[in-house]
Amino acid sequence: MEALGGGLPSISWRWDPETDILSGAFKGNRKSGGLTGTVELTDAEGSVAVLDVNNGVICGIDVVVWPEVSTRSDIQVPAQLTEGRVVLPSSGTRAAVASVEVDTSLSVETNASESIFHLRIGPRRAVEVVRVADNFYVEMDQQGGLAGFWMTHVPPFTAFEEE
Question: What's the per-residue H, E or C state across 97-156?
């Protein structure tokens, strides 16, 4: 995690009505260092989330293939959080690498109005929550690994319905 070095970025969520993909990204403000490209998180059930990374900084996410979504009435972003940037380590990645795939397990919880989504990577564990944009939070575990993401103020999904 790094200090922001400026104001908190703004992110807007959008749904692709034909594919059910939820996307959001913001412009990275780090000058150099680390992977620029994507990190694809996949699980054995076929779920896929793709992280947008710019100079090592997580700058967005696309939830491409959803795991089963659970609804909880009491879901909310943890109150204790830090504002900053989450930087992926650059060791082991070459400058020419633009995409990395990671096999893991993914789960999603949402509130009744589906305006808050919590995408968890792996099992429940102690985490630190980092607010990286106005409506986007990254969870890091005690070893500094990615543990999940919070997406807030997500607009309603309005798929085009066939008549």
Answer: CCEEEEECCEEEEECCCCCCEEEEECCCCCEEEEEEECCEEEEEECCCCEEEEEECCCCC
